[in-house]
């Protein structure tokens, strides 16, 4: 399915709204920029809503990171680059861009579901705005629940001092979000550790050979780098890393 910019914007808006607790739900304001005196409570409310929405748009990149697969992807790709020891190659822009592209690829089913169940009915005036937000948040929450570990979720439930949830619907979004991020960091470093091991073995072997040959003043990293690059190319490293990352979300 091909999305227009308008559709992607609507889906992104619903994803951003998923980071707001249910009790803080609000209506979309009719934006009219101007300076004047708020003579009625409605004028004050509209101005406050505009201010809140501008704040949300400012935090949009952070909210997008919090509710998608971006954190795991960028951490693992960065650890892979560091394990290679190739300095700043690939550059940070390439790592970030690849992580962002893979994020849209992984999140495509979730975005499609939001588009079909919430955005399109709302644009056709078949459902109200609040119903669209409620339905649009469900796919995002389902995605986060699949990637969130029970230990991290239980931690933030206790810290929030709320009653033990009976099911997923009883877990507030503001509790699910930090648990999801913490779980993503844990999973990312676990995958990064596995990626790091082969390169660590090469570094140890090269260092041992240099010491045995009496070349203690020759930097081991300079000798190990070509071997790590050759191994990485021969096993098609980027293919394996990306394949493992994408498959780690298919559960």
Distance between the termini: 23 Å
What is the radius of gyration computed over CA atoms, rounded to a whole number of angstroms? 23 Å
Q: Tell me the series of helices and strands, N- to C-terminal.
A: HHHHHHHHHH
Shape: elongated
Q: How many strands, which pairing sense, and closed or not: the largest β-sheet?
A: none
State the gist of this model:
The chain has 251 residues and is mainly alpha-helical. The protein has helices at 5-17, 41-58, 60-66, 70-84, 92-123, 129-147, 150-160, 173-212, 220-234, 237-247.
Structure description:
The protein has helices spanning 5-17, 41-58, 60-66, 70-84, 92-123, 129-147, 150-160, 173-212, 220-234, 237-247. By secondary structure, it is mainly alpha-helical. The chain has one domain (5-77, 86-247). Helix 1 packs across helix 6 (129-147), helix 6 (129-147) packs parallel to helix 8 (173-212) and helix 7 (150-160) packs across helix 8 (173-212). The longest helix has 40 residues, at 173-212. It is elongated and about 75 Å long. Residues 22-26 have low confidence and may be disordered.
List the topology elements.
Blueprint: H1 5-17, H2 41-58, H3 60-66, H4 70-84, H5 92-123, H6 129-147, H7 150-160, H8 173-212, H9 220-234, H10 237-247
Helix pairs in contact: 1-5, 1-6, 4-5, 4-8, 5-6, 6-8, 7-8, 8-9
List keywords for this structure.
251 residues; single chain; 10 helices; mainly alpha; 72% helix
């Amino acid at each position: 399915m091909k999305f227009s910019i308008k559709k992607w914007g609507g889906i992104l808006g619903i994803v951003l709204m998923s980071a707001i607790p249910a009790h803080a739900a609000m209506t979309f304001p009719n934006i009219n920029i101007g300076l004047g005196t708020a003579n009625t409570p409605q004028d004050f409310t509209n101005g406050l809503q505009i201010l809140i929405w501008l704040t949300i748009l400012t935090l949009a990149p952070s909210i997008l990171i919090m509710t998608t697969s971006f954190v795991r992807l960028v951490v693992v790709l960065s650890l892979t680059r560091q394990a290679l020891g190739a300095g700043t190659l690939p550059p940070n822009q390439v790592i970030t861009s690849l992580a962002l592209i893979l994020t849209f690829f992984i999140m495509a089913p979730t975005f499609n579901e939001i588009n079909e169940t919430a955005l399109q009915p709302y644009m056709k005036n078949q459902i109200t705005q609040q119903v669209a937000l409620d339905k649009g948040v469900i796919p995002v929450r389902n995605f986060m629940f699949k990637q969130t570990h029970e230990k991290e979720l239980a931690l933030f439930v206790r810290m929030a001092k709320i009653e033990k949830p009976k099911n997923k619907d009883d877990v507030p979004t503001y509790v699910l979000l930090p648990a999801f991020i913490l779980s993503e960091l844990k999973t990312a470093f676990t995958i990064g550790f596995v990626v790091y091991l082969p390169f660590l073995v090469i570094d140890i072997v090269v260092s041992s050979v240099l010491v045995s040959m009496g070349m203690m003043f020759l930097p081991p990293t300079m000798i190990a780098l070509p071997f790590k690059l050759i191994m990485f190319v021969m096993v098609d490293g980027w293919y394996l890393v990306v394949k493992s990352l994408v498959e780690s979300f298919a559960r």
